[in-house]
Amino acid sequence: MHEMSIVQNILDILRDEMTNRDIGRLKRVVIKNGQLAGVVTEAMQFAWEALTPGTSEFDGAKLEIVEIPLKVSCGKCGTEFTPDHNRYMPCPSCEEVLGHNVLEGKELYIDSIEPADPEE
Amino acid sequence: MSSEIPIVRDVLEANDKLAEKLKEIYKEKKILCLNLMSSPGAGKTSLLERTLTDLRDEFKMAVIEGDLQTDNDAKRVEATGAQAVQINTEGSCHLDSGQILESIKQIDLEGLDILFVENVGNLVCPAEFDVGEDHKITLLSVTEGDDKPEKYPFMFHISAVMLLNKVDLLPYVDFDLDSASAHARKLNADIEVLPISCRTGDNLEKWYDWLRKAREAKK
Questions:
Q1: In terms of CB atoms within 10 Å, which end of chain A has fewer, N or C?
Q2: Does the structural domain A1-69+105-120 have CATH classification 3.40.640.10?
Q3: pTM higher than 0.95 for the full model?
Q4: Closest Cβ opposite residue A98 in set B13, B154, B185
Q5: In the CATH scheme, what architecture does the domain B13-214 have?
């Protein structure tokens, strides 16, 4: 789902951060990608490989995408758990299946960057 | 030696910032904004035609329409007497806040009670892009299968209301209202589920009651 324009957004934010911190080139970028939001990791990698070669800031930089699984708190008893799948999510404590609150799994953010070594 | 620098910035922050601008405009003018979403053909425009007609003496309403091509929907809305602006995305499968910020310039916002954004028909992408709305309203018609909230969990997780449309067709399809309702509630305890028929008018009054309460809360 629009992974190409999502990676464009990532590059814009990275350029902004690099300007503020006086960084010329990156070695590594870590993205956190929540399971629920529907952005496909492989497609982001593909877009990154299409958009970064030849750029002074990102050529050769590695994109590391950490997938964050869905984590919820039970709608009835508050127990926090990670369901095996979205289809059927019984609470391990009270077996309630409805009304859970999403704690993790919706994220899509740039977590950290690693500047390239000066000699590289 | 690791020189990892924490950043922690949302990838979609650009759209979120524009959505905040829209929220400020709506807050200042006390306008209720609703983002109407569904797959193509579920009945968004029909819902608007009914709502804009039945409640025309109660509320001043306007619509921003989103479609790849044509102004068919804007014309249908205008026929009810309400203001409508058509966005043609040409290929983009969702509306974003930048497009809405441009479009509201064409709408007279003074005294407006409710602004509907009728999104592009799509159960995937519009969920990611806020348009400054107070609530997301998702339609699902009974011809689409009752497991759709399970197949598109994010869309239904973020919606305030699920309207189950075309209930007049229930005798002809295998659609379990309770099942669809349960799927939506898995990750959304408070979602309001309303079975309706835009064609026959069945249960629309419950939708109007929800609208009245939501509008009142924004005043």
A1: C
A2: no
A3: no
A4: B185
A5: 3-Layer(aba) Sandwich (3.40)
